[in-house]
Amino acid sequence: MITDAEMDYTGNETLKTCVDFHGHLCPGLVYGYRVAMEAMARLGLARAEDEETVLISENDSCAVDAFQVLLGTTLGKGNLILRDYGKNAYTVFDRNTGRALRFIRRKSYVYGGTVPEEYAVLEEKMNGGTATPEELKRQKYLKALDLLQSPFGDLYDTEEVAGPDMPPYAPLAPSLPCDCCGEMTMATRLVTSIDGKRCCRACAGKETKP
Fold this sequence. Notes:
- Helix content is 37%, strand content 16%.
- It is an alpha+beta fold and 210 residues long.
- The chain folds into 2 domains: 4-160, CATH 3.30.1330.130; 175-208.
């Protein structure tokens, strides 16, 4: 089996950058890679320096790492918004043009690679809970390679979001000490307790417990 280290990324340094950041090649990362590349092409995007591009991800899968690398949408900058609905769906907003695209999978995955018999055996073992760690890795690897070669339209439906509700810029607020633990906390995240204390959410949760 070819390992990630032995993969020839000649001509696709962009994918290699994603793999290096994430740690390995896998289907989830490839989904994110394919969507990010499609969004950049359709919206004319470059990697965001600030919050000019915003991504809403409806899952917390490996795909998110590809978006961080390629689109520059990160939790730290506030332009990566996670809404973990468990859906393979993503919306990319371009603040400069006001356009937004939503990418959604509506079809089950069907392997279309060059070793269908091997893949079928591996998938059966995986679904039955009998696959070894190496077999699981092989199944993911074969799926990742297939996803890289599949027409984008076979993977995702793409919809222009009409009149998109553009997410606001990341909020800025001063930090104040929690009245309960004394730790500095973003002022807008403090919670006022019954006795009038302004507490962080961790302390507020303890205060409400019997």
